[in-house]
Amino acid sequence: MDRIEKRIIEIIDQNKDKLLAFAEEGYRTAEGGFEEFKTAARVAGLFKELGLEVRENIAVTGVEAQVGSGEGPCVAVIGELDGILCPAHPFSNAETNGYSHACGHHAQINALVGAAIALADSEVAASLGGKVKLMAVPAEEFVSVAKRKKLMAEGKIKRCSGKSEMLCNGDFDDVDMALTTHVHMAPSESDLLLGNVSSNGTITKVVTIHGKAAHAAAAPHEGINALSAASLALSAIGLLRETFRDEDGVRIHTNIVRGGDVLNVVPDTIVVDGMIRANNLTALEAASAAFDRAFEGCAHAIGAKADVESWQGYMPVIYQPTDDALRLAAEAVNADGSLWIQEATALQKNAASTDVGDLSHVMPIVNFTHGGVKGALHSSDFEVVDEEKALIIPAKMFALSVYHLLKNNAELAKQEIAEYKPVFTKQGYKEYVATFK
Ligand SMILES: [Zn+2]
Fold it and tell me: Looking at the chain, which terminus has fewer C-beta neighbours within 10 angstroms, N or C?
């Protein structure tokens, strides 16, 4: 270990009690996406204590501070602010009607503030040949769509997820690469999983089928049964499933959210929600088009009409193997050899989804996931069981990875940025998502 690596580890160890107290408070005070005002204020307060200039209310609740300067690359370190609604969780927040950190985002925020404490140290900051943007970002979880539609109607947001909103607002325009973390999302018993496992992207659908009401017994010939059109479309989607390739990981979930109103009237308005998932954008678009065809074609067959709204949810996460920054950081945190460290492979897949996928289409992502927790994500039995592994080591991993990317005049960061081939330019991303609702 060199002098700066030792200094980073020493600073985070010296601040361990403060970090654990910060995490404990966060664990008990979870808030919903775009409503994380108190969590954001706590992060901003800590950044200000470090003497950093802070930008607040980014995409409603986001917080940002900067360390380092100069002409070098800009590396973002990202922590997600929001909780998930899970009232049954023992640490759910009664003030927010049951939000909890059953997805471990409080651990991410702790990793972010722990890394900030180390990186703001004058000796550490002086070793960095570039800028570090410390970013607490809102609304990773794609939930409460009705509330988000209201925020859209009020002109407060344009997109349903925080990173997508920030990408569209230009908050990532000066960022060249990003560091992210999470508790393990793909199944892993290890303490650290280095690299970014691919995950599914999503497109959400709201289908309204318009038929014609009539007396169901006396005059069914005068009606157009919208429920029959929905049934036919759901059957068509079932038949289409054999056409999806296993390697694309396509999933389609549907839910009839408005059925017929009364039994003796031919149903004239049916609303079906759907979610399409796939692990690459091409398959996602193809499955989305198949879904639309099924509803539009089957409605036509019955004489009804289907209006399909498409909401771009998350893009798939593009797999990114372990880089040297992560490997060197992991070596430093595991100097005594007590940790079980694995590297992600292209074969691992995460069926769930995250808006880190959107970022992975425009910039290189240096990601690791960590253990120290048990129980299922988003469930009441999720808990932190090892504070060191869940709350302290991730902070060291963030700060050490930044150091290795930006030391020696940012040699490694520059190489990774040059080698990365984005799917979209930042402008191209904005144009692509604008084609959806
Ligand atoms: Zn999460």
Answer: N
Q: For 176-231, how does the pLDDT look when each residue is reduced to its tens digit (9 = 90+)?
A: 999 999 999 888 899 999 999 999 999 999 999 999 999 999 999 999 999 999 99
Rounded to an integer, what distance in angstroms lies between the CA atom of residue 437 and that of residue 433? 8
**Ligand 1 mean position, distance from CA 141 (Å):** 7
Cα(52) to ligand 1 centroid in Å equals 27
Ligand 1 centroid vs 364 CA: distance in angstroms?
20
How far is the centre of ligand 1, averaged over its atoms, from the C-alpha of 103 (Å)?
5
CB under 8 Å to 374, separation ≥6 — which residues?
381, 382, 383, 385
| 164 alpha carbon – ligand 1 mean position (Å) | 15
Distance (angstroms) between ligand 1 centre and the Cα of 190 equals 18
The phi-psi region of residue 324 (left if phi > 0; otherwise alpha if psi is between -120 and 50; otherwise beta) is: alpha
Neighbours of 24 (CB within 10 A): 16
Instruction: List the domains of the chain with CATH numbers.
Output: 3-198+317-433 (3.40.630.10), 202-312 (3.30.70.360)
Cα 305 from chain centre: 35
Kind and range of the H or E element at 276? strand 269-278
